[in-house]
Amino acid sequence: MGKFNKENVNSYLELNIFDLFGNFIVIPIENIIKVFKKQDINLDKSLNMTQFLKSFHTITNSNNKIIDLYSELIQSFISILTYNLIIKERENLLIQQKIIEKVNNRNDMVEILIKLKEIKDSIIINKRKLHYFEQDYFKEKNREDQYKKSINGLKNKNKDSKRQRSKDVSQINKLLQEMDDPNLKNRNNENNLSYSERILALQKGVKECQFEIKSTGVKLTSILNEFDNFSFRFEKLKKDHQKLLNILSKEHNKMKELKTEIGDKLGENLDDFDELSLIKSPKEIDTELQDIENKMNSINDINQFLNKDK
User: Fold this and answer.
1) pLDDT at 248
2) Which of 14, 113, 222, 238 has minimal CB crowding within 10 Å?
3) How far apart are CA 20 and CA 301, in angstroms?
């Protein structure tokens, strides 16, 4: 199979596997084929495998380049969309900046701005309360749902047992009437059971239903008592929760009213304005604008379609 030593082998350890397939200097492929040719006369055709592998390698590299290019295009497209959104955000901030300058230069706006800030602080506090409050509220709401599910399940079970008991009792009465009929008295049913055997089986079913009804009734009474105690506490929790939601709703509505009042005084349409943006300081606006500029520059540097120098 060819003569080679350890040094020759080591020199090829770092070569690309496709290069080894192409050269086969370490162990000539022809020698390998000769050894196994006696077993398969068509083995010579496998010499074309190296060429196939080279072609596969070339195609794979081309596909990888196409995939990389496609990925770059997608990333560029996403960054362009982001860039456009940031531009829109900057435009809105510049409009805010002009409005805020007008507001701060008007003496008749001072009282309105103070009210806005007070409501803003109150909303922050109430939202924090609501966050912690709702953790308990939704936990208890889940308990209420579980109670209702259990109660409905027991009620349905009780109805089914009563329905089956009534059905069995009716069947017993029917069989007793048939027993009084001399023409039917000695007739067995399709399972070859006598009237007495069938009645005994039905009576057993009635007893089982009666036991189930009693057992279910005890459980239902117990869980209804638990639910009554729970409902008393949960109703108070629901009222407090709704009260807090109503307060927040009124505060938001009041902020909208104050925003409309500011717009009327300035002769500006502030429908697209967030109420809280009206109480931003000039410094806050400048900081936000600088952050936006930094984001735009960052995207511009890495996007070949936005960076004209590339």
Assistant:
1) 94
2) 14
3) 42
- Can you give the pTM of this predicted structure? 0.52
Please state, in angstroms and rounded to a whole number, the distance separating the CA atoms of residues 186 and 265: 102
Question: Is 101:201 a contact under the CB 8 Å cutoff?
Answer: no
What's the CA gap between 222 and 209, in Å, rounded?
20
Q: Is 7 exposed, middle or buried (0-12, 13-18, 19+ CB in 10 A)?
A: exposed
The token pair at 257 is 């009213």
Q: If you count them, how many residues does the chain have?
A: 310
Based on the number of CB atoms within 10 Å of its own CB, is 76 exposed (0-12), middle (13-18) or buried (19 or more)?
A: middle
The mean pLDDT values, 10 residues at a time, for the chain of 310 residues are: 48 50 52 54 58 76 87 84 87 84 82 88 92 90 94 95 93 84 58 77 92 94 94 91 94 89 84 77 85 86 60
Identify the burial level of 176 via C-beta atoms within 10 angstroms of its C-beta, where 0-12 means exposed, 13-18 middle and 19 or more buried. exposed
Give CA separation, 165 vs 205, 207, 211, in Å.
7, 8, 10
- CA within 13 Å, CB half, 271: 1
Rounded to 5 degrees, φ, ψ at 260 are: -65, -40
Residue 130: CB atoms within 10 Å: 17
DSSP SS3 for 251: helix
Residue 113 phi, psi dihedral angles, 5° rounding: -65, -35
Q: What is the DSSP letter of 181?
A: S
Domains of the chain in start order, with CATH, are 6-87 (no CATH), 108-279 (1.10.287)
Q: Is the dihedral of CA 79, 85, 86, 87 positive or negative?
A: positive
